[in-house]
Amino acid sequence: MKWQGSSPLLLLMGAYVCGGIGMAVLESVGAAPLIGTPRWTLDAYVHVLTAEWLVDGMWLTMRIALVSTGIAVGCAVMICMCIGHFALTRTLLLIPLAVPHLVAALLTVWIAGQSGWGARMAHALGIVDHWSDVPILTNDTFGWGIIFAYVWKEVPFIVLFWLPIVVRIREEWVRVARVHGASAWRAWWGVVWPLSWPSLAIGSGIVCVFVIGAIEVPYVLGVTHPASLSVLSFELYRGTLVERPQAIVVALCQMLMCLVVLAIVLFCIWRRGQRHAGW
Amino acid sequence: MKRWMYCVMIACVCTACGANPPASFDPLRAPWDEVLTEASGKTVHLAMWGGSESINAYVDRIVAPRIKQTAGVTIKRVPIDDAKDLVNKLLLEKSERKTTGTIDIVWINGENFRTAKTNGALFGPFAAQLPNVQQHVDVDAPDIAYDFGLATDGYEAPWGKAQFVFIYDQAKIPNPPKSMEQLRTWVRDNPGMFTYPAPPDFNGSAFIRQALYEVAGGHEPFLEQTMDAQQLSGRAQPLWAYLNEIEPFLWRAGKTYPENIGKLDMLYASGEVWMSMGYDPARAANLVKNNTFPKTTRTFVLDKGTLANTHYLAIPFNAPQQTAAMVAINEMLSPELQIAKFDPNNWGEDMALDATTFREQQRAALQRIHRGEATLPTDVLAKHRLPEMRGDLVPVLEEGWKNEVARK
Fold first, then answer.
1. Chain segment B241-284, per-residue pLDDT in tens
2. Does residue A161 sit in the same domain as residue A246?
3. Which of A116, A219, A225 sits opposite B406 (nearest CB)?
4. Nearest-neighbour CA in chain B from A214: distance (Å)
5. Are B269 and B275 in contact (CB under 8 A)?
6. Class of the domain covering B29-161+310-376
7. B193 near B273, Cβ under 8 Å?
8. Is the ipTM of this complex over 0.85?
């Protein structure tokens, strides 16, 4: 089988990941504290899971993950369908890929912030009287700034993840379909899409999981409250050592959300495999 | 067939975890000459907050070359966001019994020092061994012997003194407020023009302590050794009332706060807010100098005084080069490097040394330094110093702010 070639890697990765999670869980129930004597307790779970800020944080995290993944997938599909075959598109898409997330977040502040370049330009062109009239696009309660930064960063990722497969299908299957008289539209939805969506699903799953876990963008572009789960767990982690178990509980919530997303993606692909033979 | 690969990997992991043998040389007992000889040629890693260009430049361009020249020790600066992260890492390494760490010197004070010292994560006591501490530091002065209410006991050596100041633009605010009461009025009259970094940011946390002293009946009660978390929570009620009262008049109507001091500085530099603040009286002058802040930027303290503290250098329990670290710290406390630090062209920060112990020539050099328009004169700062409260009470206020202000 294919995966056996990478089994040493899997073993190492598995040991680190499972070991890390195991240690974290032990610490979260007080069995392995950094300082002091071990004492089994579920205090951290009770404290975190009953807190209003956790619920708010979960909603926010889910909202930015789903909305930014949704918009990114929509844009990526449009790009692949319309301009994916131009070499220039691919070159331009490499630019956001090369920019780290933290830089993307800061760029968003500089461009879309209330006193940023966008606002200054609007003021210079006479569109607004004062920068304070510019709508609040960063550090807003909904999270539009965060979503914008993620979409900008993740569209190229999804396109480059998906486009090679689309191109291959086009070359081999779309010509056949066209010979048999299918319109371009019909060839796309009848041939390319059914054959390629599983890889799009995997790509967007990766993006969604990344957004749930990553901290830089919500840290720079978010509001103080509600804060995303990543910001909450980071702040608790940096707090006193007493708060460390709580940080772990928040991180476990993030992990749970990631597992749900992965399960949904895998379930969709599995069901498809039940119905047709795969590509 | 690939079994040998597993063996190699497991062997690699095992060697990586293994500990190096401890050095037999004891720098805490050896004569200073031997310490110097032992340290020569070594490299030390200095972990410090990396958020200030001028401080970084002072270390890279002034401190490192000089120590290389005088003691043969190479300094590698490791920028960190908060000493708290490093202290947590040390505690983790301690629990894993990792006897050889990566950092030799850490810039630290307050609650981080308390956590590190009380959990045995620091090497020492080493301060009394250093010739420059013996000659130039007034080790009995309360603001040096006690770090946020905790005796340093020689586990850290003072590097400099900082004081909380407010930063404003005199072109926009001709008469800055002189008390928290006046600040409240000013904020109300100028909606959207004021905010503070969200605690637990170091400076934001200092701002709420500063406010606490004034709105909850002076600093004295908060310095008492008997004060505990519960009493503090009770006494902090007027502070939450004050902060919630000004909240609707803050930047973005208090719906969000800048996540750190860098963001607040950015808002001030772009004119989005009219005041900044910070625990470094010379930062404003430095940012004026590199054209980040407007030329008309000035600083002010409150009539009843502002928070002041001393910051220190410490050596982690598992520093790989403890001897060279001691030598480097000693050099950093030399009058030459401390006077250079006082110079606003480098950093502009108050010295940890007692200038009366200096030679005539060094005192003259000190007199010639002009600290810039935006920095208050040393005597004005000195007259308005208030002591810090106990470090272990600080997280109580930070947690209180989250629950009583941010999440309401």
1. 999 999 999 999 999 999 999 999 999 999 999 999 999 998 99
2. yes
3. A225
4. 16
5. no
6. alpha beta
7. yes
8. no
